[in-house]
Specification:
The structure is a homodimer of 322-residue chains. Chain A has 322 residues and is α+β, with helices and mostly antiparallel strands. Chain A is built from 10 helices and 11 strands. In chain A, α2 packs parallel to α6. At the A-B interface, α1, β1, β2, α2 and β3 of A face α1, β1, β2, α2 and β3 of B.
């Protein structure tokens, strides 16, 4: 009796990615120890072909995006990566080459982010490929970043630039012209989890989360957790040169930038007196941060003011699956 | 701006299931502490509609099956449950009633098995519903059950009865007559993770795993881990009265019992001198166990002998997705 193809697939593509505690992916579960004095931080995100990534995205970037959107959740908690488990439910007929590329991308990011696979499961589906990843990290007990904690008067900050991912998706769909450097498409396919920044601002920021469903919607979540509102200046929201060029040509793209999602930047708040400490921490982490507004007393409404000072009317707060 | 439907769905169905450390499912990740002196045991299994469960299975049992197949992996490691994360990628148009039933079943099993949800993700797909669960448990450092460790001369044991799940699937598909008590269908839909048994035999068994892909195939994995073979007496394999009645009427169903999978019983080995300690441990755990064969020196081949002493020829070693 030969072994079924499922086990050959796991041995060929995933076993080389296995880390300490994974027991070579040959047992029923992984067994790991946390570093002494650290708490476990754990989150899970799924990605579906045609929903969270494009069917013709390179397989190398799909595995990396899956890992990175999960690492972004660790970043938002101030945590450091420990490992991950992954379930790959593959559309029937998925080519071995596709899997090889998928695993090659994961191997590259494992090296860059310092973690390895601990376990998972592989199955087939008649529907689109459905990937799920559970990320494990650790944090010192007194350094957990939380989404709750913003107070009226706090500044609102974001890391990096906003809107690249949402614009990049539209570029890849052929709805917008591509920038010459391919920056926007790359940002859609390969978000940059702000792990060093999350750890650097823990203890300074009053609240933090990552921006995945759109800046305005996600700031709304942060406001609801705090029982406060927020005011954002649209012109203060940092955009990349490529996004700025598109916005310059068509100002009606501003809502895409503000609500489109797929940013995976950190959104956080802090009292104005902490601004210089934040800037120092961000510089240490090698990431730009920008003050985009402030937390205000009142109901959890996010008001975005345009360049003329008038409130923008945003048709949709952000991405939803239902 | 109102909240998207996705968040209402999570608040309505999943937040009531959240446990300590889940931060009310309102943060980017869960933060938990392991009980002092315990190691973390973690595994993930996916289930796809039409592949791992039937589209018309009651939603109450689907969530419970998803949880139980994962708990079975903890059982196989001798671990005790701590919590779980779950990603639900739902076929578009999934009814709210279906989700209510799915969550109701999970709530029931959470009480029975003493754990709660820590986090996860919800998305939609045009394909069949795709569920993934990551189970967390803990184990004392000196009580980890491993798949590796069997030695020539060890007895091979299984818990409970074998073949009910595979026969139950065929009953539910209308391929076999139902037993009057509905035992076989129930066993397919609601496997019984042998958590107490796993913990009871840790330190006695030389190797252990759970039977999910079929007894013969899974024993093959255990043999490969050990670099040994195994001999099994088909007539020693324990079957339920309902399975026995079907086998009595049609002996050609024996390969279904031996290779069909969906058993979620524990398969384990121990030196013959440990038999009475195993029986005592199993009695304490309230689970029957049966000696079905032995580990032999040589290549990792599983030989099954029929009632006449001749080797059975099994066309397929067990379930594979590819």
């Amino acid at each position: 009796m030969s072994l079924p193809a499922e086990f050959a697939l796991i041995a060929r593509h995933f076993r080389p990615l296995a880390g300490e505690g994974a027991l070579d992916l040959a047992d029923d579960a992984a067994v790991i120890d946390l570093p002494a004095g650290r708490r476990l931080v754990i989150a899970a995100d799924a990605m579906v072909e045609g929903v969270h990534y494009l069917p013709d995205d390179p397989p190398e970037t799909i595995g990396r995006k899956l890992l990175r959107v999960n690492l972004s959740d660790l970043a938002a908690m101030g945590a450091a990566p420990l490992g991950y488990l992954m379930t790959t439910v593959l559309q029937r007929g998925t080519a071995d080459d596709w899997l090889a590329g998928f695993a090659r991308g994961l191997a590259e990011d494992q090296r860059d982010f310092g973690l390895a696979v601990l376990g998972g499961d592989t199955a087939a589906t008649p529907g689109p490929t459905c990937l799920s990843l559970t990320i494990l990290g650790t944090v010192a007990p007194d350094a957990v970043l939380r989404r709750v904690g913003a107070r009226a008067g706090d500044d609102v900050w974001v890391s990096g630039t906003i809107g690249d991912g949402a614009l990049g998706l539209r570029v890849l769909r052929g709805e917008l012209p591509a920038d010459s450097g391919g920056h926007l498409a790359r940002r859609y396919r390969l978000p940059e989890p702000r792990l060093a920044l999350g750890q650097a601002i823990a203890g300074i920021a009053s609240a933090a989360m990552d921006v995945s469903d759109g800046l305005v919607q996600d700031l709304g979540h942060l406001c609801r957790a705090a029982g406060c509102g927020a005011e954002v200046e649209a012109r203060a929201v940092p955009v990349s040169p490529a996004a700025g060029a598109l916005l310059g040509a068509d100002a009606t793209l501003l809502p895409v930038v503000l609500t489109g999602g797929d940013d995976y930047e950190l959104l956080f708040t802090a009292p104005p007196g902490s601004a210089s400490a934040l800037v120092t921490a961000a510089a240490r982490a090698g990431v730009s941060i920008t003050r985009i507004g402030r937390i205000v007393a009142g109901s959890p409404v996010v008001a975005v003011r345009g360049a003329d000072g008038a409130a923008l009317s945003l048709a949709s707060g952000g991405w939803s699956h239902f």
